[in-house]
Amino acid sequence: MIRYGLAGTMAALSTLLLVSCGSVDRPAGADATTTAENTGAEVPLVSLDAPDVARWTTVNDPVMGGRSTSKVAYADGGLVFSGTISLENNGGFASARSPEDPDIGRKAASATSIRVRAVGDGKTYVLRVGAAGQPWSYIQRFPTETGVQRTYELPVAAFQPVGMRMDPAPQAPATLDPSSITQVSVYILDKQQGPFAITITGIDATH
After folding, report:
1. E strand map for the chain
2. Is residue 42 within 8 Å of 201, Cβ to Cβ?
């Protein structure tokens, strides 16, 4: 009986040893959750403090005969872009534009996406980025939720080239070069008639 007890003990020890060795041979980190892909460094492209917001300008459809209105102001920790879109006289757009700044491109160089942090009103807005002296720019839309603070991830590869009137720009490079950006703008268009308001608290490049 003792022999059988010793044999059983040895068998159990051998099994434990095999299990232990098997756990050592597993790939390192096999059970770990990887989050590195979601922790890209953010670099602010523009300052949205009160003195800097005061330097933004608006350009609306009255330049082409329309009757839309808009304004920018500093409130709630960021830039508030608001106004009313009118479809009269073939109008229908308003925009808020940052000052021209070549340093934006330096900050955005090699970025994989641009993040917009904002509280919207349920309407769809457009982020437009461009380079001084070029007849084209690049746009990407982002739909908002009423009263909800969200971060909108806009991949660089998804920006589309457009001309001065938001028409296709086949002569432009098909892909946006972030290092060429000298200005960022926020537009509302797409015949979204009526009052609008969006509060933007950050526009950052993600690397």
Report:
1. 42-44, 57-60, 69-75, 78-85, 94-97, 113-119, 124-130, 137-143, 149-155, 160-162, 183-188, 194-206
2. no
72 is written with which tokens?
Answer: 């920018």
Q: pTM of the entire structure?
A: 0.80
Task: For residue 154, give the nearest of 191, 189, 186 by alpha carbon.
Answer: 186
Q: 139: closest CA among 114, 157, 161?
A: 161
Give me 67's structure tokens: 């009757």
Q: Decide the pairing of beta strands 194-206 and 42-44.
A: antiparallel
Nearest-angstrom CA–CA distance, 168 and 109: 24
Q: Quick one: which H or E segment has residue 5?
A: helix 2-24
Report the C-alpha gap between 158 and 51 in whole angstroms: 32
Q: How far is CA 196 from the centre of its chain?
A: 20
pLDDT, block means (10 residues), the chain with 207 residues = 42 38 34 36 96 98 95 98 97 97 97 98 98 95 98 98 95 97 98 98 97
* Residue 6 CB partners (closer than 8 Å, separation 6+): none
Token digits of residue 118: 């904002």
